[in-house]
TrEMBL record:
Source species of the chain: Triticum aestivum (Wheat)
Compositionally biased region (Basic and acidic residues): 56-68, 76-92
InterPro entries for this protein: Peptidase_S1_PA (IPR009003), Peptidase_S1_PA_chymotrypsin (IPR043504)
Pfam families: Trypsin_2
Region of interest: Disordered: 53-97
Name by which UniProt lists this protein: Uncharacterized protein
Taxonomic lineage of the native organism: Eukaryota, Viridiplantae, Streptophyta, Embryophyta, Tracheophyta
Length: 417
């Protein structure tokens, strides 16, 4: 690092422009060396397993002591902590994500005050590190529709973000034909009210007449956060195309009862569309793939699974279920078979993935073309389509609340084997 550091700065933190910890500074006359964060974590874990120089009574890290330490921990603490972390950091891909409940403000009233009162030694966010203005740090999250953190906990992670990737992404394992077809028809979309982002998800090209192209996606993209029976006010839609361009989308049709929307892109002629009119037989245990695209990065993702004979927990009785594990970024994306045939459109579930079958979607599109947008207000018992809201998870709060060993948590979170 080229920044000069005085002797008084030795041992101080090196942070990025968001205030996140990068490493610890040392001293040199011309440049400032620093110990990276991952090496510090390795050393901390080593110290934990090594007896202190003054302790001659027992060896720390022995099987007896470590076993006793693990016995005091909540068995689900680390699993819940891992969900919502960067999926690329998760090495144990077979671990089934679980739900963190103690950091969810919707389940814990007055959580912000509780955190501040219970953890007075942790700086309140945003702490002024003098590198980036506090307004800029706040705007980074507000512009994306995310809540602001409460604590300057270096291990904090945003749960249920729109940028979270599939935990078992197998895009690179798709057949050349399926990958080629999907890469040209799957897009990412984001909706905005003013400058604030409301939602982000996946969509798929369904037709093009040479002057406009239509995209099938989830109705959650356009639904108001304040009143789920209405479309958001001052709605703006942006589409991240396969060629990386961002273009404006216009809401053409929607049915909030079935949570389906059609977006048109003017002056765009796509080279390929999903073939949704071809009927493909899909029975129980049929292998399927859920496809998604992240809005900000444009990254394509795929998750594998099978169709199962299980009733959806959502209200809509037309839905079927697959075992594909997706994130919020994959909502509205296509469910396909191994040959790339369109099976349905994915929604979100905490355990499995509900999807709208192709037959139902074809009927809805036919109704749109014949009658226009459905009137949601005339549905006597409209379906609800809940999507988990993003919130911040703090490892230090798990350590305090559940007795979780923080170093054990960090060991699981950052593996380098």
């Amino acid at each position: 690092m080229s920044l000069g550091a005085l002797n008084t700065g030795v041992g101080g933190p090196l942070v990025d422009f968001n205030g996140d910890f990068v490493g610890m500074n040392f001293y040199s006359k011309e440049e400032t060396p620093f110990l990276p964060r991952n090496k510090i974590l390795e050393l901390l874990m080593h110290f934990r397993r090594t007896s202190p120089c003054w302790d001659t009574s027992k060896k720390r890290g022995s099987k007896t002591e470590r076993g006793a330490s693990k016995a005091q921990m909540s068995p689900e603490s680390h699993k819940s902590d891992l969900e919502g972390s960067s999926r690329q950091e998760m090495k144990n891909k077979n671990q089934k994500p679980t739900i963190c409940t103690i950091c969810d403000p919707e389940l814990n009233s007055g959580l912000e005050d509780t955190l501040l009162e219970s953890l007075p030694s942790i700086r309140r966010w945003p702490y002024d590190w003098g590198l980036v203005s506090l307004d800029a740090r706040r705007d980074k999250f507000r512009s994306r529709g995310y809540p602001l953190p409460v604590l300057e906990d270096n291990g904090k992670r945003l749960r249920y973000s729109f940028e979270e990737e599939f935990s078992e992404d197998i895009w690179n394992k798709l057949s050349e034909r399926a990958a080629s077809n999907m890469s040209r028809v799957v897009v990412a979309l984001a909706s905005f009210s003013g400058e604030a982002r409301l939602f982000a998800c996946t969509g798929v090209f369904i037709d093009s007449n040479g002057f406009t192209t239509r995209v099938l996606t989830s109705g959650s993209l356009v639904r108001s956060n304040d009143d789920e029976s209405k479309v958001a006010d001052n709605l703006k839609i942006e589409v991240h195309l396969p060629d990386k361009r961002h273009v404006t989308g216009i809401l053409q049709h929607y049915d909030l009862h079935y949570n389906v929307a059609v977006i048109i892109i003017e002056k765009l002629r796509c080279t390929r569309t999903a073939i949704i009119n071809n009927k493909v037989e899909t029975g129980t245990h049929s292998p399927v793939l859920a496809i998604g695209r992240v809005y900000e990065s444009g990254k394509l993702m795929a998750a594998s699974g099978i169709v199962i004979n299980k009733e959806s927990k959502l209200d809509c009785k037309d839905l079927r279920i697959s075992t594909c594990q997706i994130t919020k970024a994959g909502i509205g994306g296509p469910l396909i078979d191994s040959d790339g045939n369109f099976i349905g459109m994915n929604f979100y579930g905490l355990e499995e993935t509900p999807y709208m079958p192709r037959d139902t979607i074809v009927k809805l599109l036919g109704n749109f073309d014949a009658k226009g947008t459905a009137d949601f207000t005339k549905v006597p018992a409209p379906n609800r389509w809940p999507v988990p809201k993003p919130y911040w998870c703090y490892p230090v709060w798990h350590e305090r609340k559940e007795g979780t060993d923080l170093l054990e948590f960090l060991e699981r979170e950052f593996r380098y084997d």
